[in-house]
Amino acid sequence: MSSINYAEKIPNNVNLVSDRTLQRALEHWQPHFLQWWHDMGPSDFESADVYLRTAISVDAQGWAHYGAVKMPDYRWGIFLADPVAERKIGFGDQMGAPVWQQVPGEYRSTLRRLIVTQGDTEPASVEQQRLLGHTCPSLYDLRNLFQVNVEEGRHLWAMVYLLHAYFGRDGREEAEELLARHSGDADKPRILSTFNEPVTDWLSFFCFTYFTDRDGKYQLKSLAESGFDPLSRTCRFMLTEEAHHMFVGETGIGRVVKRTLEVMKELGTDDPKRIREHGAVDLPLLQKYLNFWCSSSLDLFGNEISSNSAANFANGLKGRPDESQYEDHVLRAASFKLRTPQGEEQVPMLNALNEVMRESYLKDCEIGLKRWNRAIERAGSSFRLTLPTPQFRRSIGAWVNQPVDPRGNLIPREQYEKQLADWIPSEGDKAFVRSLMQKVVEPGKMAGWVAPPDRGINNLPVEYEYVKLH
Ligand SMILES: [Fe+2]
Ligand SMILES: [Fe+2]
């Protein structure tokens, strides 16, 4: 089951050849996908040879094969993690019942919506990042960008497979719509707002892969718990790809910090103006980017109080990330203490699951911060990077439009408006960051605002020509 058949038009490990109707439907969608990639993907780099990894098997040992590929020739396909024998629903009111191999009729539209919402983010991020190649800080980074891009393309395939295989005609229609909406489009935008934000510089890209791909990790983890087994298996394999995206974010920001510390030492100052004149990102500026992307990504978890998330959990459709770490998997008797602008409120746990997920996500976000702050401390600086409070700059839920500072204090609105430019990137900050974004494509060379990585890809040296541009 684990081995992937690359002889077919659509590589897969789901025995696609045994279902001719499904195979034909997906083969019909395939050229639409390729056209979308050509129109909306990193299309200025179609002739480049990129050192990419491709899945060869879905087990932990040997899923990756590395080699030079032109991106339009990447073998996007359908890969599901191996089934778990006798798998049971692990949470909610039907806990302990066998998982479903088909979509239960009563949950059909909810499951379709969950899959479409996840699916929509995948091509959205490719669209957001499509021009970044023109300002890459190195060939190493360029390759990482393209690796992320092709894998997000594959994640779209993963969701489209589910839509085609289990949702009939509406599923096929949704699959077309996934190619018709576009990030930032005035008429047909992507579903979630973070995926309509432009990602036009590499500092934003590193923050996006750190914070927004991590939201992806949490969504996939909760869907991997689903009682709908094909969704669970699909998401489990996607998670192995997602880990690389967060690696790009965490090491990317870490390298920015490292370079800034070098410049601070060289100049003997932490004066942001002098650091910028030297072509590096001062730490307060990096903090603003963290504030922006973290707060934007926190919105993706939705309302603090949500009857949808309660129903999805109770019905066994969407669990909590790492459900097995909890003791109570039914939550009918549990409650949650929620902070609202009106004060603390006790709410049924089932209704607060978005918030539970947001909290565990934030904890995961702390890991990188600790690492970066250790480097800052070692360099003898007293500056510390922090995460904004989840009440800061929210555009969804109880804290919408509330004047909360990044530390979590409710402050006078006037003061908030005035200080916002100190907390998230101002136009001047963005213009400065853009000015740093000069394309560096000589093998082994790095832009001046970011330190080289500690090691290359797949045991190759950092100087390796990871992308051969023609
Ligand atoms: Fe993804
Ligand atoms: Fe991702």
Cα(first) to Cα(last) distance is 39 Å
Strand content: 5-15%
Rg over C-alpha atoms, rounded to the nearest angstrom? 23 Å
How many individual β-strands? Answer: 5
Spatial ordering of strands, largest sheet: 2-1-5
Helix content: 40-55%
What is the string of SSEs from the N terminus onward?
Answer: HEEHHHHHHHHEEHHHE
Poorly predicted ranges: none
Overall pLDDT metric: 96
Give the cofactors and ligands.
fe (ii) ion
SS field, number of helical segments: 12
- Sheet of most strands: 3 strands, antiparallel
Q: What structural class should be given to the helix and strand makeup?
A: mainly alpha
Query: How does the overall form come out from the CA principal axes?
Result: globular
Helix-strand layout with pairing:
Blueprint: H1 20-40, E1 49-55, E2 64-70, H2 108-128, H3 139-166, H4 168-180, H5 202-224, H6 229-267, H7 272-277, H8 283-298, H9 307-314, E3 335-340, E4 343-348, H10 353-378, H11 413-423, H12 427-436, E5 467-468
Antiparallel strand pairs: 1-2, 1-5, 3-4
The structure holds fe (ii) ion (FE2) (2 copies).
Residues 122, 152, 155, 216, 242 line the site of one fe (ii) ion.
